[in-house]
């Protein structure tokens, strides 16, 4: 009976479109009969949950994670500070999706003071040259930077990274491409990986691909990257060709070994491209076979089979066309091919 009474009060204050989600949410978060009942305070959860649900558009599943990661939110008796934080983050440029990600990943932000903690860090980051869009992305991907001490943690880390990358411009590019770099230990994690990218992979700082190569090392580790480069060599490419591909398009290291194998096999054995062509156009290794390479190849073969036909593009040029541009230029041929 106590639960039924409590549940009716909760649902009476929540819109119908939200109420349909309540069964699992109620048992997971609101029910005093749940496993966390000993630390549960109905007025606390009601204040925060209703604010995030009704005014911020959070889903019940997101709230479950919020309260699991920050149980102390249940003891807050007013949503005033949370409102100020949400308002500040929106003013700082975060989209609603980014806002949700930020709070779910680090719900303790709702308990920080805007003027004393958040504002100073955001203003400091802006002085480095981040655009509003870049900064919003960085915060949503690595929200724990807002919890770190400005003077004892964030500013010294930024100073070290700036020395590492050489300028604010390079620093902003690096952190925008790989936000996780800001969470890495400079001496133990980042410096050895920078040295690996420069000495082993042969990609120097300042080049357009350096940050992307570094990101692969940071996210995958030395061993996985080395294994993928060996795997590419085992597929018929020389070590020199592998290094040239990685230098030109290090994002290829983010592909699975299965994807590498399938694309290289199709491009060389089915499409008839040379290894040299792959080295010059490594982006082809990242394209989808069924939705991009195969249909574009079929249309190319159809054009080549027509007598006295003049090919408007090379096969590589055909592969590089986006789906929109491909349909615009060759939609009639693709339709004819599919109809047979």
From TrEMBL:
Name this polypeptide is given: Mitochondrial transcription termination factor
PANTHER family: CGI-12 PROTEIN-RELATED, TRANSCRIPTION TERMINATION FACTOR MTERF9, CHLOROPLASTIC
Gene Ontology biological process terms, A to Z: DNA-templated transcription termination
InterPro entries attached to this UniProt entry: MTERF, MTERF_sf
Pfam family, one: mTERF
GO molecular-function terms, A-Z: nucleic acid binding
UniProt record similarity statement: Belongs to the mTERF family.
UniProt keyword list: Transcription, Transcription regulation, Transcription termination, Transit peptide
């Amino acid at each position: 009976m106590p639960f039924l009474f409590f549940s009716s009060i909760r649902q009476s204050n929540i819109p119908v479109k939200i109420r349909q989600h309540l069964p699992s949410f109620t048992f997971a978060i609101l029910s005093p009969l749940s496993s966390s009942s000993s630390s549960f305070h109905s007025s606390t959860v009601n204040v925060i949950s209703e604010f995030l649900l009704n005014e911020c558009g959070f889903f019940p599943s997101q709230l479950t994670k919020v309260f699991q990661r920050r149980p102390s939110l249940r003891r807050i008796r007013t949503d005033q500070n949370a409102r100020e934080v949400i308002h500040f983050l929106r003013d700082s440029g975060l989209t609603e999706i980014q806002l949700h990600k930020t709070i779910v990943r680090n719900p303790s932000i709702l308990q920080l003071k805007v003027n004393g903690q958040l504002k100073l860090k955001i203003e400091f980051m802006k002085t480095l040259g981040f655009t509003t869009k870049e900064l919003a992305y960085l915060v949503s991907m690595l929200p724990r930077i807002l919890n770190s001490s400005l003077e004892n943690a964030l500013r010294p880390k930024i100073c070290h990274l700036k020395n590492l990358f050489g300028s604010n411009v390079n620093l902003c590019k690096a952190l925008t491409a790989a936000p996780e770099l800001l969470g890495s230990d400079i001496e133990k994690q980042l410096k050895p990986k920078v040295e690996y990218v420069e000495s082993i992979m042969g990609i120097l700082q300042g080049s357009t691909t350096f940050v992307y190569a570094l990101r692969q090392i940071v996210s995958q580790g030395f061993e996985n990257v080395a294994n993928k480069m060996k795997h590419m060599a085992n597929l018929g490419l020389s070590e020199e060709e592998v290094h040239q591909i990685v230098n030109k398009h290090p994002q290829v290291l983010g592909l699975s070994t299965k994807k590498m194998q399938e694309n290289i096999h199709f491009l060389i054995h089915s499409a008839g491209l040379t290894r040299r062509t792959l080295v010059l156009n490594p982006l082809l290794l990242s394209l989808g076979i069924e939705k991009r390479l195969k249909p574009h190849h079929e249309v190319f073969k159809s054009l080549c089979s027509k007598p006295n036909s003049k090919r408007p593009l090379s096969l590589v040029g055909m592969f590089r066309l986006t789906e929109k541009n491909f349909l615009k230029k060759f939609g009639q041929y693709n339709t004819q091919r599919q109809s047979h």
